[in-house]
Amino acid sequence: MPGSVSKNSSLAQSASTRITSGPAEWLALLECAAPRVDIGRLAGLLENFLNWPDLLRRAENHCVVPILADRVRNLDDAFVPTEVRATLRESRRMQAIRALQLTAELFFVLERFAEAGIETLATKGPALSVRCYGDPGMRQYSDLDLVIREADIWRATRTMLDLGYQPRVPLTAIDAKKIPGEYAFQKPGTHLLVEFHTERTFRYHPRPLCIEKVFERRASVTIDGRDVPALSLEDELVLICVHGAKHFWERLMWIADVAALISSGQPPDWDRAMAAAREVGAERILRLGLRLAMDLLGAELPAQVEANVRSDHAVSKLAAQIESRLAFHEPRGIGMLQRAAFRVRMRGGFLAGAAYLLRLSLSPTEEDWTPDKKGNRPAFLDAINRPVRLAKKHRRRSNR
Q: Could you count the other beta carbons within 10 Å of the beta carbon of residue 134?
């Protein structure tokens, strides 16, 4: 963390090439989320502005409040109003408490799964926070994400039941081999939520994920002095880019994660990262995540990787659209046709993109099952229902 800055300090000029146009509140948020903060530039933005309620609202919407709180805590009081500082301090305290609870639960669940002989890998959550920021409390997250094999889902379910959790996916649906968006378990009377992902729930990967290769490439992350089994750095990078693309990169947190992960003291092996992306057909998805990290947050890449990213003209256009939407708070939801076009372009090539879109459009999740969510209806009826439901859902969002 940079040292304290007084209002009379000279303001350093940013050497980054990231975007410098947009509302002052957005630019200040970008500076905070950058992996290498220009504290002088941040102080200048805070000095010459500012609508603090709008900045705090943007930080909350983009799930970067802990990062904002950390970046401004050593600034002189002249830059940060007392009431804002108190609000950020309280938000950071609550997130730290939440992170401690979830981290303790992560250790507990992993121990029980190890005893049951179920191999498990952590992703996102506290593991990603440590990888990106060196602190499990620096990301905003409200659940735990774990990767297991689909073949182990019944044993995992029994283990979670033994731990006092209740499945959100009906057992009848698991019996019928229905595939939800994720296998979620909630502990009654608490806010504890654990989500399991398998090779079959990673439906937004353009090609099926080879789960055995993911386990072969496993790594470990040290959290509070304990080694936690986790995805390899390269698989994690691809996964968070796929997740960001799934949600059309609507939150700055996802871009900040990419920027921080590739800018950490142990950056990814780029040959392995590109190979992992090729395995699942996510090359363009990865390039878009990297382009956003460069444009918005000044993340630096090796020259050859940067040239590869910048040479993709489709990525350049998509990145510009996303950056504009983020900066100017465009109120309308993304329409169905825009969503469809985005999915097609993410795959690269019209035929491959159309096949990817068709598969996503006809791959039902629990939202497409029978009204009581028991999952008793034949799968082909769920598949037929899915595009109709999606059309209604996104029409409502677009109208709002």
A: 11
**Which has the minimum average pLDDT: 4-13, 254-263, 294-303?**
4-13
Is the pLDDT at 317 greater than 90, yes or no? yes
pLDDT single digits (tens) 328-343: 875 456 778 888 999 9
Q: In this structure, how many other beta carbons lie within 10 angstroms of the beta carbon of residue 46? A: 23
Helices (H) and strands (E) in the chain, counts: 18, 7
Per the structure block, which two tokens stand in for 273?
A: 């990262």
pLDDT of the residue at 7: 38
Q: Residue 228: which H helix or E strand, with range?
A: strand 226-230
* Selection from 222, 189, 203, 202 nearest residue 148 by Cα: 202
At 196, give phi and psi (nearest 5°): -105, 135
Rounded-to-integer distance, Cα 312 and Cα 39, Å: 32
Beta strand 183-186 pairing with 166-167: antiparallel
Report the distance separating Cα 302 and Cα 158, nearest Å. 46
Q: How far apart are CA 100 and CA 95, in angstroms?
A: 9
* Spatial CB neighbours of 173, under 8 Å, sequence gap ≥ 6: 180, 366, 369, 373, 374, 375
Q: What is the pLDDT of residue 167?
A: 94
pLDDT given for residue 116 in this prediction: 97
d(CA 155, CA 173): 15
CA 186, 187, 193, 194 dihedral sign is negative
The region that residue 283 occupies, defined by phi over 0 for left and psi between -120 and 50 for alpha, beta otherwise, is alpha
Contact predicate 140/63, CB 8 Å: yes
- 65: nearest Cα among 22, 100, 95: 95
> What's the pLDDT band for 132 if we cut at 50, 70, 90?
very high
Task: Tell me the average pLDDT across 115-132.
Answer: 97
- Walk across the sheet containing 121-123 and list its strands: 166-167, 183-186, 193-197, 144-147, 121-123, 226-230, 219-223
The C-alpha atoms of residue 219 and residue 14 are separated, in whole angstroms, by: 35
Question: Which structure tokens are listed for 212?
Answer: 């055995």
Say which residue, 333 or 321, is predicted with more confidence.
321
**Average of per-residue pLDDT across 256-275:** 95
